[in-house]
Structure formats: C-alpha cells, structure tokens
Amino acid sequence: MSDELEAELREQVRKLCKRYPEDYWQEHDRARTYPEEFVNELTDAGYLACLIPETYGGSGLGMREAAAILEEINRSGGSAAGCHAQMYTMGTLLRHGSDEQKERWLPQIASGALRLQAFAVTEPDAGSDTTSISTFAERDGDRYIVTGKKTFISRVQQSDLMVLLARTTPREKVTKRTAGLSVFVVDLRDAGDAVRVQSVETMINHETNEVFFDGLEVPAENRIGEEGEGFAYILSGMNAERILLASESIGDALFFIDRCQIYANERIVFDRPIGQNQGVQFPIAEAYIRTKAATAMRDQAVALYDGGEPCGPAANMCKLLASEVAWEAANVAMDTFEGYGMAVEFGVERKFREARLYLVAPVANNLILSYVGQPVSYTHLTLPTILLV
User: Fold this and answer.
1) 196: number of Cβ within 10 Å
2) What pLDDT digit, counting tens, does each position of 284-314 carry?
3) Measuring CA to CA, which residue among 175, 154, 173 is closest to residue 163?
4) Which H/E stretch holds residue 251?
5) Using CA atoms, how far apart are residues 350 and 371, in angstroms rounded to an integer?
6) Strands, E, within 290-382: which ranges?
7) Any idea what DSSP says for residue 359?
8) For the whole prediction, is pTM greater than 0.90?
9) How far apart are CA 27 and CA 24, in angstroms?
C-alpha cells in the first residue's frame, strides 16, 4: 500500500471513530459493557477482516494496514481491545488449518457472521509457562473430551468460536516440553453446560473471564493441524499480536500527547499558557520523541512481517517500547492536567488505566527482556506466550 492510500485509510478510520466520542466510551467504562455498536461498525466496514485473504472474503491487506487501523482507533480515544483479536486470532486457522476448515470458517469470520475473538491458552497454575498447561483433550473416537480451566480469556461471551490450546498427551509422556499440545476450534454456540464462564472484574473495561471445561465434546475435525504440534501453531500467530498491540500503545501515546498539546496551549496560569513552562513542555517533547522511536521499531517489524521475514525480535521489542512510551505519556498527561487529569470528563484517567495493561500483557515486558537477553541468535528465538488479550 502506498503512503497516499495509507493516509486515506487512516482518515476513514478517524471519521468512523468520530461517531464514538468520549461520552460513548465513558458510558461503557462506567457500566463495564462491551462496545457492541463500535465493533459492529468496524466489522461492517471490513476493517477487522483486513488480514484475511480476498479468497475467503477478507480485504487481503497486510500488517501495515492492520497496524494503522488499530493505532488510529486508540489515538482517537477509543479502545481497540474489544475487537483486535478478530484480526489476529484467525491466524492459526489461516496458516495451519485445512482447506476445508478455512472454507468453513474464514468467510463467515470475514463477514462478521461469526466472531472469533477468544483465544484460550492461559491457565492459573501454568502462568507464563505455557508448556505446563493441564487442560486435557482426550481422544474418544471421532471427538475429543476436554476438561480443565483457563483464565484471563477475553471476549468469550462475545464470541461464537474460540481457539483452544489443550494437552493431548500427558506431560510426563512427552520427550520435549513443547510436545503433546494441540489446537482446536471450539464452537461455543454448541458447548452448552460443558463450558462455564465466570467474568473477571478488572481495573479497566476489559471483558475477560475464567473458563471451565467439564466434558466438552469437540469434533476431531475441529483440530487444527497435527495432534501434539499445537505449541508451534500458537506461536506462529504471536508476532502479529505483538505488532498490533504495539500499534494500539502507539495510538495511546499519541492520544495523551495530543491532549497535552491542546491543554498546555489553552490552560492559562500566571497570565500565560502553561506550555510555555519548560517543566510542562519538556516531558511532552520527550514522550513524543520516544513515541517516534517506538513507531520506527514497529514499522521495522511490520516490514519484516509483510515481507515474510523472521520478525520475532522486532515484534517483541516494538511491543515493549510502545507499551513503555504509552505509560510514560500517560503519566505526562496526568502531570500536565494535574487535578483535572483525575476528572472523568477529559478521558485521561480512563486511558491512563488502559495504558497500564500492556506493560504486563499479553506478554510481560520482563519476559521480553529475558527473551532478548538470551545469548543466542535472535533470528531463531521463540518466545513463550501468555495471553490476556
């Protein structure tokens, strides 16, 4: 996509977002409700299907365009967390599913007839050590019987389908830690009482849950790829997730910087705009400089991803840089607005809370530092994964 077309795409997303002002997001934040209208309009516009090939009804665009969409949503003051998984969760199906599976599900995901926004990996006892999960799928003829528990599984109650990682071989019987895990597509509409969902209340309006599986029957034809190879399938989609969430954090940082710029110019104290004071001006400038640096890292990751090149290190580093600068900009905004930053009407306190999440999820920044710090070839590193969003 050319720079001109990307600019046009960004402008169209901004126009859509203007129909959902701060009042809209505040109402959902107070009520802890899902922004259904916003997500539906994004779906109808085709934005959430941008990474699905045209063959299956999607837009057939690249990571560059997907990143631009989510960045603009968050820069506008919105929250892409309610819909971003519709972009990347289907990646496991797209890359590793059979032709029949892709024909069965992808066109309906692209049209919005089916929502696939739930990615069930994380477990309370395993934590970041995904190879230690215990949710088990036992083969029984032409089906699997699933028992176990997942936690921090977002948007289950707003999804029709869920991607599930479960153990199919007991851990003590595998020869390597990453073996014995398999991936399934679960049709939640048919799950009945075999799936129980318990909402987890959080500091932000983020629809996440504990999920309990009690004898859930999953057709064997819903298994993605080979039995026991699911860990590698899951990891293959994590680079896209990291890049997209970095883009949201960049959008958050720009939201705070935009608001600071306006407020610092309009707020008069001691007979002059507060932005004329270096104590106000310099932190905003520093946040902007670091946002540009994070954007450059994100753009490098995007170029590698769209070019089919290894991008794990770049994807993870841009996630770390972007989440850190979003949090820095959030604190700069609080200092700039001072007491008014705590006032709900400005939207700063809401976005402040939201920006904090990506320092620890969907992969904690300390885990990224551990990954980058390993004395091995970065090109071939594979990062363990824990999912909250």
Assistant:
1) 13
2) 999 999 999 999 999 999 999 999 999 999 9
3) 154
4) helix 238-266
5) 31
6) none
7) T
8) yes
9) 5
